[in-house]
Amino acid sequence: MEVLNMTSERIITILIPFPKELDVNGDFGNIQTIQRRLTWYGYTPKIAVWQGGQLPTNIDIMLTGGGMDSGLKAVYPHFTEHRADFKAMAADGVAMLLVGGMYQMFGRSFMLDGNKLEGLALLDVTSGKAPEKYDGNIVAQSSRFGEVVGYEIHETVTKLGPTATPLCETVTKGTGNNADDHNEGVIAGTLIGTYMNGPILPKNPAVADYLIEAAAKHRYGSFEPTAKPENFPVAAFIDNARKVAASRPIMQAARI
Fold this sequence. Notes:
The chain is 27% helix and 30% strand.
Protein backbone atom coordinates (compact mmCIF):
# COMPACT_ATOMS: atom_id res chain seq x y z
CA MET A 1 0.00 0.00 0.00
CA GLU A 2 1.36 3.39 -0.97
CA VAL A 3 1.27 6.49 1.24
CA LEU A 4 -1.26 9.01 -0.07
CA ASN A 5 0.30 12.29 -1.15
CA MET A 6 -2.24 14.91 -2.23
CA THR A 7 0.43 16.72 -4.26
CA SER A 8 1.41 13.61 -6.26
CA GLU A 9 -0.29 12.14 -9.33
CA ARG A 10 -2.24 9.67 -7.16
CA ILE A 11 -2.12 6.94 -9.80
CA ILE A 12 -4.79 4.24 -10.03
CA THR A 13 -3.85 1.38 -12.37
CA ILE A 14 -6.64 -0.17 -14.45
CA LEU A 15 -6.13 -3.64 -15.92
CA ILE A 16 -7.85 -4.25 -19.26
CA PRO A 17 -7.65 -7.93 -20.27
CA PHE A 18 -7.95 -8.84 -23.95
CA PRO A 19 -9.68 -5.63 -25.13
CA LYS A 20 -10.29 -6.99 -28.63
CA GLU A 21 -11.91 -10.26 -27.55
CA LEU A 22 -13.88 -8.80 -24.61
CA ASP A 23 -15.72 -5.79 -25.98
CA VAL A 24 -18.81 -6.81 -27.94
CA ASN A 25 -21.55 -4.72 -26.34
CA GLY A 26 -19.99 -1.31 -25.87
CA ASP A 27 -18.21 -2.32 -22.67
CA PHE A 28 -15.33 0.02 -23.52
CA GLY A 29 -17.63 2.69 -22.12
CA ASN A 30 -16.98 1.25 -18.65
CA ILE A 31 -13.28 2.01 -19.06
CA GLN A 32 -14.00 5.55 -20.21
CA THR A 33 -16.32 6.12 -17.26
CA ILE A 34 -13.78 4.94 -14.70
CA GLN A 35 -11.03 7.00 -16.33
CA ARG A 36 -13.09 10.18 -16.41
CA ARG A 37 -14.50 9.87 -12.89
CA LEU A 38 -11.05 9.08 -11.47
CA THR A 39 -9.76 12.26 -13.08
CA TRP A 40 -12.62 14.33 -11.67
CA TYR A 41 -11.96 12.85 -8.23
CA GLY A 42 -8.34 13.99 -8.46
CA TYR A 43 -6.66 10.71 -9.37
CA THR A 44 -4.57 9.78 -12.40
CA PRO A 45 -5.79 6.67 -14.26
CA LYS A 46 -3.12 4.44 -15.77
CA ILE A 47 -4.08 1.71 -18.24
CA ALA A 48 -2.37 -1.70 -18.28
CA VAL A 49 -3.42 -4.03 -21.10
CA TRP A 50 -3.03 -7.79 -20.67
CA GLN A 51 -3.20 -10.18 -23.60
CA GLY A 52 -1.70 -13.27 -22.04
CA GLY A 53 1.61 -14.12 -20.45
CA GLN A 54 2.74 -12.50 -17.24
CA LEU A 55 0.14 -10.35 -15.52
CA PRO A 56 0.96 -6.68 -14.96
CA THR A 57 1.73 -5.76 -11.36
CA ASN A 58 0.36 -3.07 -9.04
CA ILE A 59 -3.19 -3.41 -10.37
CA ASP A 60 -5.95 -1.57 -8.48
CA ILE A 61 -8.98 -2.34 -10.62
CA MET A 62 -9.76 -4.77 -13.44
CA LEU A 63 -12.48 -4.11 -16.00
CA THR A 64 -13.58 -6.95 -18.26
CA GLY A 65 -16.12 -6.73 -21.05
CA GLY A 66 -18.37 -9.43 -22.44
CA GLY A 67 -17.27 -11.68 -25.27
CA MET A 68 -18.62 -13.90 -28.00
CA ASP A 69 -18.07 -17.65 -27.54
CA SER A 70 -15.08 -17.51 -29.88
CA GLY A 71 -13.48 -14.77 -27.80
CA LEU A 72 -14.20 -16.52 -24.52
CA LYS A 73 -12.67 -19.75 -25.86
CA ALA A 74 -9.55 -17.82 -26.84
CA VAL A 75 -9.06 -16.17 -23.44
CA TYR A 76 -10.17 -19.03 -21.16
CA PRO A 77 -6.77 -20.81 -21.07
CA HIS A 78 -5.01 -17.57 -20.16
CA PHE A 79 -7.35 -16.84 -17.27
CA THR A 80 -7.23 -20.39 -15.90
CA GLU A 81 -3.43 -20.33 -16.07
CA HIS A 82 -3.50 -17.39 -13.68
CA ARG A 83 -6.35 -18.61 -11.48
CA ALA A 84 -4.24 -18.31 -8.32
CA ASP A 85 -3.11 -14.81 -9.29
CA PHE A 86 -6.68 -13.57 -9.74
CA LYS A 87 -7.69 -15.13 -6.42
CA ALA A 88 -4.77 -13.36 -4.76
CA MET A 89 -5.79 -10.07 -6.38
CA ALA A 90 -9.35 -10.44 -5.09
CA ALA A 91 -8.13 -11.34 -1.61
CA ASP A 92 -5.91 -8.24 -1.66
CA GLY A 93 -8.89 -5.99 -2.41
CA VAL A 94 -8.41 -5.31 -6.11
CA ALA A 95 -11.71 -4.08 -7.59
CA MET A 96 -13.12 -6.14 -10.48
CA LEU A 97 -16.01 -5.64 -12.88
CA LEU A 98 -16.92 -8.89 -14.65
CA VAL A 99 -19.48 -8.63 -17.44
CA GLY A 100 -21.42 -11.33 -19.28
CA GLY A 101 -19.27 -14.31 -20.15
CA MET A 102 -16.53 -13.16 -17.78
CA TYR A 103 -19.07 -13.06 -14.95
CA GLN A 104 -19.75 -16.71 -15.75
CA MET A 105 -16.06 -17.62 -16.11
CA PHE A 106 -15.24 -16.25 -12.66
CA GLY A 107 -17.93 -18.48 -11.15
CA ARG A 108 -17.68 -22.17 -10.27
CA SER A 109 -18.72 -23.57 -13.64
CA PHE A 110 -20.20 -22.37 -16.92
CA MET A 111 -21.15 -23.55 -20.39
CA LEU A 112 -19.07 -22.64 -23.43
CA ASP A 113 -19.68 -23.95 -26.93
CA GLY A 114 -21.82 -26.77 -25.53
CA ASN A 115 -19.25 -27.88 -22.96
CA LYS A 116 -19.35 -27.48 -19.19
CA LEU A 117 -16.12 -25.87 -18.03
CA GLU A 118 -14.62 -25.23 -14.63
CA GLY A 119 -14.63 -21.58 -13.68
CA LEU A 120 -12.10 -19.63 -11.66
CA ALA A 121 -14.39 -19.93 -8.61
CA LEU A 122 -13.94 -16.39 -7.34
CA LEU A 123 -17.74 -16.06 -7.32
CA ASP A 124 -20.17 -18.56 -5.81
CA VAL A 125 -22.29 -18.89 -8.95
CA THR A 126 -22.91 -21.55 -11.60
CA SER A 127 -24.06 -20.84 -15.15
CA GLY A 128 -25.74 -22.94 -17.82
CA LYS A 129 -27.73 -22.82 -21.03
CA ALA A 130 -30.95 -20.78 -21.01
CA PRO A 131 -34.23 -21.91 -22.58
CA GLU A 132 -34.58 -18.46 -24.10
CA LYS A 133 -32.42 -15.63 -25.34
CA TYR A 134 -32.81 -12.66 -23.03
CA ASP A 135 -32.38 -9.49 -25.04
CA GLY A 136 -33.70 -6.15 -23.81
CA ASN A 137 -33.70 -3.36 -21.27
CA ILE A 138 -33.36 -4.23 -17.62
CA VAL A 139 -34.16 -2.32 -14.44
CA ALA A 140 -33.34 -3.71 -11.00
CA GLN A 141 -33.36 -2.59 -7.37
CA SER A 142 -30.25 -2.84 -5.20
CA SER A 143 -30.14 -2.24 -1.45
CA ARG A 144 -26.63 -0.86 -1.91
CA PHE A 145 -26.93 1.11 -5.16
CA GLY A 146 -30.62 1.92 -5.51
CA GLU A 147 -32.12 1.59 -8.98
CA VAL A 148 -29.71 0.07 -11.50
CA VAL A 149 -30.49 0.31 -15.21
CA GLY A 150 -28.91 -1.35 -18.22
CA TYR A 151 -29.29 -3.72 -21.14
CA GLU A 152 -28.96 -7.48 -21.11
CA ILE A 153 -28.34 -9.90 -23.95
CA HIS A 154 -27.49 -13.47 -22.97
CA GLU A 155 -28.42 -17.05 -23.74
CA THR A 156 -27.33 -18.34 -20.35
CA VAL A 157 -28.73 -18.42 -16.83
CA THR A 158 -26.80 -18.04 -13.60
CA LYS A 159 -27.69 -19.43 -10.19
CA LEU A 160 -26.26 -17.96 -7.02
CA GLY A 161 -24.74 -20.30 -4.46
CA PRO A 162 -25.39 -20.14 -0.70
CA THR A 163 -22.60 -17.65 -0.02
CA ALA A 164 -23.38 -15.33 -2.94
CA THR A 165 -25.04 -11.92 -2.63
CA PRO A 166 -26.92 -10.51 -5.62
CA LEU A 167 -25.83 -7.17 -7.01
CA CYS A 168 -29.54 -6.33 -7.29
CA GLU A 169 -32.03 -8.20 -5.14
CA THR A 170 -35.07 -7.53 -7.34
CA VAL A 171 -35.42 -7.25 -11.11
CA THR A 172 -38.45 -5.12 -11.97
CA LYS A 173 -37.97 -5.17 -15.74
CA GLY A 174 -36.08 -7.84 -17.67
CA THR A 175 -34.59 -11.14 -16.51
CA GLY A 176 -31.20 -10.76 -14.82
CA ASN A 177 -29.52 -13.92 -13.55
CA ASN A 178 -32.43 -16.18 -14.47
CA ALA A 179 -36.18 -16.13 -14.96
CA ASP A 180 -36.96 -17.74 -11.58
CA ASP A 181 -35.05 -15.87 -8.90
CA HIS A 182 -35.66 -12.30 -10.17
CA ASN A 183 -32.25 -11.02 -9.08
CA GLU A 184 -29.31 -9.68 -11.05
CA GLY A 185 -25.57 -10.10 -10.85
CA VAL A 186 -23.47 -10.72 -7.78
CA ILE A 187 -21.32 -8.65 -5.46
CA ALA A 188 -18.53 -10.27 -3.47
CA GLY A 189 -16.35 -7.80 -1.62
CA THR A 190 -14.68 -5.68 -4.29
CA LEU A 191 -15.89 -7.93 -7.14
CA ILE A 192 -19.01 -7.25 -9.19
CA GLY A 193 -20.40 -9.68 -11.75
CA THR A 194 -23.32 -8.70 -13.98
CA TYR A 195 -25.25 -9.37 -17.16
CA MET A 196 -25.79 -5.64 -17.62
CA ASN A 197 -23.88 -4.26 -20.56
CA GLY A 198 -24.41 -1.53 -23.07
CA PRO A 199 -22.33 -0.54 -20.84
CA ILE A 200 -23.38 -0.54 -17.15
CA LEU A 201 -21.17 2.14 -15.55
CA PRO A 202 -22.02 5.36 -17.48
CA LYS A 203 -25.68 5.23 -16.37
CA ASN A 204 -24.94 3.85 -12.90
CA PRO A 205 -22.39 6.16 -11.25
CA ALA A 206 -22.99 4.65 -7.82
CA VAL A 207 -21.65 1.33 -9.10
CA ALA A 208 -18.71 3.06 -10.79
CA ASP A 209 -17.87 4.98 -7.62
CA TYR A 210 -18.02 1.78 -5.54
CA LEU A 211 -15.30 0.31 -7.75
CA ILE A 212 -13.29 3.54 -7.72
CA GLU A 213 -13.40 3.78 -3.94
CA ALA A 214 -12.29 0.15 -3.65
CA ALA A 215 -9.42 0.78 -6.07
CA ALA A 216 -8.27 3.89 -4.19
CA LYS A 217 -8.38 2.06 -0.85
CA HIS A 218 -6.40 -0.79 -2.37
CA ARG A 219 -3.64 1.56 -3.50
CA TYR A 220 -3.64 4.16 -0.73
CA GLY A 221 -5.72 2.77 2.12
CA SER A 222 -8.35 5.48 1.79
CA PHE A 223 -10.48 7.29 -0.77
CA GLU A 224 -9.99 11.05 -0.65
CA PRO A 225 -11.74 12.72 -3.59
CA THR A 226 -11.04 16.35 -4.46
CA ALA A 227 -14.54 16.94 -5.88
CA LYS A 228 -18.13 15.89 -5.23
CA PRO A 229 -19.95 13.82 -7.88
CA GLU A 230 -22.97 16.15 -7.90
CA ASN A 231 -20.61 18.83 -9.24
CA PHE A 232 -19.34 16.73 -12.14
CA PRO A 233 -20.19 18.28 -15.56
CA VAL A 234 -22.20 15.19 -16.59
CA ALA A 235 -24.30 14.84 -13.42
CA ALA A 236 -27.53 16.22 -14.93
CA PHE A 237 -27.00 14.31 -18.17
CA ILE A 238 -26.57 11.03 -16.27
CA ASP A 239 -29.78 11.60 -14.31
CA ASN A 240 -31.70 12.17 -17.52
CA ALA A 241 -30.11 9.17 -19.24
CA ARG A 242 -31.10 6.96 -16.31
CA LYS A 243 -34.72 8.14 -16.49
CA VAL A 244 -34.87 7.49 -20.23
CA ALA A 245 -33.31 4.03 -19.85
CA ALA A 246 -35.68 3.07 -17.03
CA SER A 247 -38.71 4.14 -19.10
CA ARG A 248 -37.87 2.02 -22.13
CA PRO A 249 -39.99 -1.11 -22.66
CA ILE A 250 -38.43 -4.53 -22.31
CA MET A 251 -38.10 -6.48 -25.54
CA GLN A 252 -39.83 -9.85 -25.78
CA ALA A 253 -37.56 -12.79 -24.97
CA ALA A 254 -36.93 -14.78 -28.13
CA ARG A 255 -37.03 -18.55 -28.34
CA ILE A 256 -33.68 -20.00 -29.36
